[in-house]
Amino acid sequence: MDDAFQSLEKEKQERILNAAFKEFSEKGYKQASTNQIAKDAGIGKGTLFYYFGNKETLFNYLINEAFEIAYREYLSRIDFDETDFFNRIEEMSVLKWQVYARYERALSFMAHILMHSENYVLPEDLVKKRQKAEEIWGSLLTRNIDFSKFREDIPKETSLKFIRWTIEGFRAELEQRFKQADFQDYTNENLKPFYEEFYEHLDHLKKIYYKNSKGEQSKDVE
Amino acid sequence: MDDAFQSLEKEKQERILNAAFKEFSEKGYKQASTNQIAKDAGIGKGTLFYYFGNKETLFNYLINEAFEIAYREYLSRIDFDETDFFNRIEEMSVLKWQVYARYERALSFMAHILMHSENYVLPEDLVKKRQKAEEIWGSLLTRNIDFSKFREDIPKETSLKFIRWTIEGFRAELEQRFKQADFQDYTNENLKPFYEEFYEHLDHLKKIYYKNSKGEQSKDVE
DNA sequence: AAGATGATTGACCACTCTGGTCAGATATGG
DNA sequence: CCATATCTGACCAGAGTGGTCAATCATCTT
Questions:
Q1: Which residues bind DNA (chains A, B) (predicted)?
Q2: CB spacing of A151 vs B215 below 8 angstroms
């Protein structure tokens, strides 16, 4: 059959895709080994080519799949009716962690190809998808946000960048910590302390970048 | 001679080291190709092995060299008598850019091996150097800093992290912009607009994270 | 039970690239 | 002119590459 791969049990599909996501995002297109992918997925090398024909087709399939996931599970779910900046960013972060827990490999793969986009020529039908995704992506933190709450003595765009960078820094630190501690089990239960840390940070950021309408700032000396 | 490499003109040494730095930091130890390094350095493959004997020795030489540079050109030059946090961070950043302009490849290489330290076993004499470097590194933004200037309503460690993350975010954005614009010429003249942007950011951060002794914050509405 | 068809495999292919060697060429200095 | 140090790329065995295919296995139909 032509789409033998589609007819597989979902679990097997996922095993194969994850193996491929992993290999490609770790080594890039050229250095990635189809042998390794097959071995990692627990199937024969011939089977892999039976499904996808050749390396390039597999790669394009992965790109499409990753974009599909990112859109379906993340971008399309943002609630643009939420106008408070910090509520929006909280919603985004929580959603992102959930997606990451479930589709870590796919998202790492996407991050890789976005980061090294110079090296890859996307097939035409994917270019549009990419543009649309980037458009939404870029508007996540700005569309329909109530910026009147922000302090006035710093340009709004600057505040926005600073907040984004701060949260990205926190995310990177978490990733580091997870890696170091061999963190595996991304259940909500296990993540609880990190969520609390995150909310604490959000509170501080709000204190910093929102207007201080109550004038609390001046209780200086301890 | 045994240290034929040391007797070369500095320029040739540097060409070879840079080629090696580049290859190793892009591909990692195993995937890096000695052929590529030789070609990139503009010397015969035999010559490379004449100098270093084998791949591993070359690699260890590079690690040592990178640490040497980081210490000599950066860590040892920080002025710990400067107690103002933002002056300290400004000094560090400027110094880092200078070093980066001159030793980009070596620093990227060091970043790579620090990032993937799980994969590499350092030779014993380097472990000590690494520890010492990390010790200094970790104290750059804390030792002999006057923390009484910071606002009191946010934990000092939190403020510190936030500032670090913000500046790291700015640095990452600059790197991105440079890459996109094929920026090559790291002369002070060319960097000027970016310096100005940086100082502006520093001012804003100071306004944000230092105590607001003059109570300026409340000039709200535009 | 026999046959047919699709799914799966790994040995195999031609080819590229690997780290490393070494006989010979070239440069240097006495 | 020799001796010694420097430098080279053809060459090596081995590993790994993407891709093929005859053979096996599994499932279903008749």
A1: 33-52
A2: no
Contact A126, A67 (CB under 8 A): yes
The amino acid occupying position B192 is K
Instruction: Select from A170, A204, A220 the Cβ nearest to the Cβ of B152.
Output: A220
Q: For residue A85, is pLDDT > 70? A: yes
Pick B152's closest partner by Cβ from A151, A208, A222: A222
Query: What three-state secondary structure class fits A212?
Result: coil
Asked if B164 lies within 8 A of A169 by C-beta distance, the reply is yes
Nearest to B92 by CA among B129, B132, B135, B136: B136
| C1' of D25 to CA of A43 (Å) | 15
pLDDT-based confidence at B111, cuts 50/70/90? very high
Give A133's contacts (C-beta < 8 A, 6+ positions apart). Answer: A67, A70, A71, A75
Check: CB of residue A40 under 8 Å from CB of residue A22: yes
pLDDT higher than 90, residue A206: yes
Element (H, E) at A106: helix A85-115
CB B24 within 8 A of CB B59: yes
Q: Among candidates B132, B136, B129, which has minimal Cα distance to B80?
A: B136
Residue A4 CA and nucleotide C1 C1' are separated, in Å, by 29
Query: Which structure tokens are listed for A106?
Result: 């796919």
Residues 123-162 of A with CB under 8 A from B: 151-154, 158, 161-162
- Nearest-CA distance from A160 to chain B in Å? 11
Read off the tokens for B165. Answer: 């993350």
H/E element holding B53? none
CB B75 within 8 A of CB B40: no
**Closest nucleotide (CA of A58 to C1')?**
D18
Q: Does B42 touch chain A (CB under 8 A)?
A: no
Q: With bands split at pLDDT 50, 70 and 90, how would you rate the model's confidence at A79?
A: very high
The pLDDT score that the predictor gives to residue A44 is 97
d(CA A14, CA A9): 9
Put simply, whether B166 touches A (Cβ < 8 Å) is: yes
